Amino acid sequence: MATSREYRLKSRPAGMPSADNFELATVNLPEPGPGEVQVRNLWLSVDPYMRGRMNDEPSYLPPWQIGKVLDGGALGEVTVSNADGLRPGDLVNSFYGWREGFTAPAATVQKLDPKGLPPQTFLSAAGGTGLTAYAGLLEVARLKDGDVVFVSGAAGAVGSMACQIAKAKGHTVIGSAGGPEKVAFLKEIGVDHAVDYKAEPDLTAAVRRAAPDGIDVYFDNVGGDHLDAALAAARTGARFAICGMISAYNEAQPAAGPRNLRMMMGKAIEMKGFLVTHYLGLQPAFLADFIRWHAEGKLRWRETVVQGIERTPEAFLGLFRGDNTGKMLVKLN
Amino acid sequence: MATSREYRLKSRPAGMPSADNFELATVNLPEPGPGEVQVRNLWLSVDPYMRGRMNDEPSYLPPWQIGKVLDGGALGEVTVSNADGLRPGDLVNSFYGWREGFTAPAATVQKLDPKGLPPQTFLSAAGGTGLTAYAGLLEVARLKDGDVVFVSGAAGAVGSMACQIAKAKGHTVIGSAGGPEKVAFLKEIGVDHAVDYKAEPDLTAAVRRAAPDGIDVYFDNVGGDHLDAALAAARTGARFAICGMISAYNEAQPAAGPRNLRMMMGKAIEMKGFLVTHYLGLQPAFLADFIRWHAEGKLRWRETVVQGIERTPEAFLGLFRGDNTGKMLVKLN
Questions:
Q1: CATH: 2.60.40.10, 3.90.180.10, 3.40.50.300, 3.40.50.261. Which one for B3-124+302-331?
Q2: Which tens digits make up the pLDDT trace of B150-183?
Q3: Are residues B271 and A274, on separate chains, in Cβ contact within 8 Å?
Q4: Which of A277, B219, B229, B281 has its Cα between 20 and 30 A from that of A101?
Q5: Which H/E stretch holds residue B50?
Q6: Which of A265, A267, A270, A278 should one mutate to test binding to chain B, selecting the residue with the greatest count of B CBs within 10 A?
Q7: What does DSSP assign to residue B82?
């Protein structure tokens, strides 16, 4: 491979991003130097958190820069290697996403043993997506026997894994998602009470009907009205793992927060924001549980696959329209 | 004492309460039966949390009932005793507030040893007020060496104790309060950076100036804009003890929450609501520290005293206008 097409940031959005914020460019890939590899990407990950990187503000990852190539999760195949331990044909995980290929030091990619799973699973259910759900439930929310669990964005990549991990551990699970198709998927993965928030005039009432004695754990992917409903339905001592607030990411002016926040005091509610990057040490334990639960038929996941590097921005923008069920991935040719 | 005047709930407010929501009545006090005492109250406590009890909604304490006597913290003197261990003249703490006197089982009052302090201190700095600050900082926010602490409502009863406990433990403290008089009090009690939120056009900028490297602990008495500023100024891993949200208590429609809540994820912020009633086991440790810090000259407190049972509603309503510096108390004749 001599050239690679890659996406660059053309402009920063105010509010909802559009395809105009991205531009495709072609670059020549250098020959790998000593200790370097050249990789052809097979799969790219697009994720809601990337919206934050389009803003020019400090955060846990640096902002994307105008005119520069974007980055993100990617899965590829080594084509040329000048490094010990990696050979052509080896699969590697990397953060060199939004591009067809790259040349880089071998130390910046991770060799992947797919353990009999389709390799892109390691960008979705068995990768950071599943680990996020696992860490949020077990470490952040400190899930314990008998807890009733509410998951928002439950048909999404992280949400559907959170629902199934909670079910695999024997919990009653309430999941919310938008539309009949997603609700059908929630039932398919064993969610006890599937709430279609688009069809519910009163989300709080719907959660209360599903959990008449209240919820103990809330796994938040949405924020906004969903967080309000969780506060209203929470039992004393409830623990909220705040994983995402997709409802707020594209507001030019940040939207107002939940009106019910004062319930935190009377109910002694704990809310804890987290990033999966703080819990990477859990990966071996997660993968062991994942393999076991998968073998027991307790895990299902979906991928929404968009084909072709040219459609990467479209896949990304679709996340904010709810186009995906499960993890949104881009498959390269 | 044969009769007692007492306040009853006349009507429930929508939004800000008024004197019309209360009515004064006179009752005859029964003679104490076996195991009972009769008590003349000397001091009554009025507190922001009582606003919640005016609403007809379930909470950690039952709602006050229309036509029934109100309750709350009180300090009194035994006048008649039919119980072992209590004699006329003994001081007692009880929850029989909003009234001049009462007859009750001795087991429902607590004999008080004032340890050389003015007895009403046990309704304020040395009582639940100080314990709330102590528990919020040490247990809820898990204060640790080097933490920079931000306290809102810092000139209030709980807030001023939180500031001084943090200072006694060697921390840098930023306190916010409204108006020059309260700010002067904050300086008097040793707060490092006193912010007058009424004079600041941008509270977030003011907190950031006071804590250029960010805050580690936020003790929230206010909610709303103050919580927004704390989220913006928080360092990674910051812990928020959510003690009160006085800014939200009198909204007929609950006010919208903080716009910055999504910062919880990137900064891995923990917010925990709490009630002092879950931490009563800390009282002996708190009192020992209190006596020591007081002897070392590290604690000051103010009381705003309103004289006469008739003015109890006025004292209570004054809490929401910020009339008090330190604990608001009603002194009976």
A1: 3.90.180.10
A2: 999 999 889 999 999 999 999 999 999 999 999 9
A3: no
A4: A277
A5: helix B50-53
A6: A265
A7: -
